[in-house]
Write a structure and sequence with these properties.
With about 120 residues, the protein is an all-beta fold. The chain has one domain (about 1-115): Immunoglobulin-like (Sandwich). The chain has no helices and nine strands. It has strands spanning about 1-5, 10-15, 20-30, 35-45, 50-55, 60-70, 75-85, 85-95, 105-115. The radius of gyration is 16 Å and the shape is elongated. The chain starts with a strand and ends with a strand.
Length: about 120
Amino acid sequence: MLRKSKSPVPFEFERSGGSLITARVDIWKATEDGWLAVGACEFNDPTAPNEQAQVKLDAGSYTCVFQCSVEESINGVYEFTLTVGGKATFADKGDVNTTMARDDQKVFKDQFILEVQKGRP
C-alpha cells in the first residue's frame, strides 16, 4: 500500500470498544548500509478515543511498520482505524474475547510505503 503526503505527515488513530488498544508506527528509510529508523508515532493512551501526531520528514520514500495491540478489558470488543495523510490505512473491528481466559489479546502488524512530497500540506 502506498500513502502520499507532504511534511509534516499527519497520523490519526481512532479506537473504541471495551478493550485496551494501543498502536505505533515506525518509520524507516532505506540506505546503502541498511535501514535507518527516522521517526515513530505512538498512540499509547487507551482512554483517548482519538489521538493525532505529525512527523516532519524530508521528501522521499519511507517504509512504515504499523503495530496494534488489543487486550481484553471490560470485554473484548474493539474497533480501530489508522489514518495517514487523510486516508484510512488500516482498520479492523471484532472481539478478542475468544477463550475463558481473562486476558485474551491480539496483535496486528502490517506495513506500507509512505512517499513524502515536497512542499507544505
